[in-house]
Structure to design on (402 residues):
């Protein structure tokens, strides 16, 4: 059998621990036998990040700007314990943060649904994708404890020295205060990424804030979205038969619970943080979530939503058997290959990505899965496999489909 051709390489960002082990198994069993895989390889494993003073992370992000599509393995974000464990020169920053800052993107997360693992919310027939704005608000806020009576004000000093003040509160007793901000260009990028992704995936886009209470801050988000939609996207949305729908955040939450799913929900930074955890646990597990960073210029970086599964890795190192779920990492590869196929007009490559996803899902639906899923499925008589054998089982299903 001849292998499926590629034109442009994918930017391949290798990572750490158990997901690095999965990465190699997936390539060996599910990709290399079928695809003439072209990648430009960047080793984002913590050791190599440390050797290169983290330059490799920057280079991989620049390469994504050059080629357009990347696939990333989960990576360690160092903390004090990791600095010691890996004898690091510095506590290097989160690679995801670095890459996101360079690509200026928005992260879209969607559950991978399979029969036999039913969402907690019965009426969710289709996935709900969360788009989280990844800049500002409470994550970049300045805070103060107010010890006692006194006045707190917000002061803006323009470059020419003129001042504008608003009273936050006239304190009569002890309290707390907080100042936060966001940037119009960042909100614009967020809006464009959301509209672009909605068109890409042909799904309606919801956006919600608390603009009735926050008449300047949240209202700016609402206005920026509406303006960009009307100017740049309305006609394209009409042609694609999808909608842009704005509502209040509390109304959105109520409607989400009653919905059938099948749409994208754009969230401000805090809402996205909270709601994505609610959605992923309601849909099943983090190991069954796709995650893609989409830049407003149309660059894509696909990854799994979970981390490096450290506990399983230590078992693996001791020679013990692991049953780590590779689904999210497989879908990172299929997402990237399908996008590459779309951009390079390679229908065979797109078809392969579809088939590999289908093989993965139907392997699980036939009752063969990893331990995390076996614990939550309603299917009976399931076969629980170890990490490697589960990937081999997917290969067998895939060969059957091909
Ligand atoms: P984690 O790797 O997501 O794992 C947390 C727990 O969730 C695991 O111990 C495991 O539970 C379960 N789990 C997650 N993925 C699974 C999978 N594929 N199959 C089966 N079970 C899975 O999060 P963490 O332990 O908090 O973080 C570990 C490292 O990952 C950290 O160094 C962190 O910096 C990094 N991280 C990276 C990313 C990223 O690169 N995108 C994201 C988050 C965290 P059991 O142990 O109970 O089986
Ligand atoms: Mg969170």
């Amino acid at each position: 059998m001849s292998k499926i051709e590629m034109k442009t390489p994918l930017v391949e960002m290798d990572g750490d621990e158990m997901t690095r082990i999965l990465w190699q198994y997936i390539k060996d069993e599910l990709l290399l036998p079928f695809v003439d895989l072209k990648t430009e390889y960047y080793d984002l494993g913590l050791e190599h990040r440390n050797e290169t003073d983290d330059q490799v992370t920057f280079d991989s992000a620049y390469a994504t700007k050059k080629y357009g599509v990347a696939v990333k393995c989960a990576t360690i974000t160092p903390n004090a314990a990791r600095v010691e464990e890996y004898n690091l020169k510095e506590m290097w920053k989160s690679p995801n943060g670095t890459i996101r800052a360079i690509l200026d993107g928005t992260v879209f997360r969607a559950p991978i649904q399979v029969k036999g693992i039913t969402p907690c919310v019965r009426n969710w027939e289709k996935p709900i994708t969360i788009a989280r704005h990844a800049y500002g608000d409470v994550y970049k806020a300045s805070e103060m404890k107010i010890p006692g009576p006194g006045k707190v004000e917000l002061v803006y000093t323009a470059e020419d020295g003129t001042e504008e003040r608003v009273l936050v509160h006239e304190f009569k007793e002890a309290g707390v205060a907080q100042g936060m901000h966001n940037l119009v260009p960042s909100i614009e990028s967020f809006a464009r990424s959301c509209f672009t992704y909605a068109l890409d995936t042909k799904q309606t886009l919801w956006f919600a804030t608390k603009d009735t209470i926050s008449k300047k801050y949240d209202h700016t988000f609402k206005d920026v979205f509406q303006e960009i939609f009307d100017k740049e996207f309305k006609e394209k949305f009409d042609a694609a038969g999808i909608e842009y729908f704005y509502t209040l955040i509390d109304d959105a939450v109520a409607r989400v619970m009653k919905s059938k799913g099948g749409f994208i929900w754009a969230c401000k930074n805090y809402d996205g943080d909270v709601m994505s955890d609610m959605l992923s646990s309601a849909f099943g597990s983090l190991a069954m979530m796709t995650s893609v960073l989409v830049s407003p210029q149309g660059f894509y970086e696909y990854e799994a939503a979970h981390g490096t599964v450290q506990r399983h890795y230590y078992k693996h190192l001791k020679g013990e058997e692991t049953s780590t779920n590779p689904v999210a990492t497989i879908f990172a590869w299929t997402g990237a290959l399908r996008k590459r196929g779309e951009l390079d007009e390679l229908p065979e490559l797109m078809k392969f990505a579809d088939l590999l996803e289908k093989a993965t899902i139907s392997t699980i639906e036939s009752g063969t899965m990893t331990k995390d899923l076996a614990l939550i499925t309603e299917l009976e008589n399931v076969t629980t496999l170890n990490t490697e054998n589960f990937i081999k089982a997917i290969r067998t299903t895939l060969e059957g489909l091909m």
About this structure: The first helix runs from residue 17 to 31. The chain is about 45% helix and 20% strand.
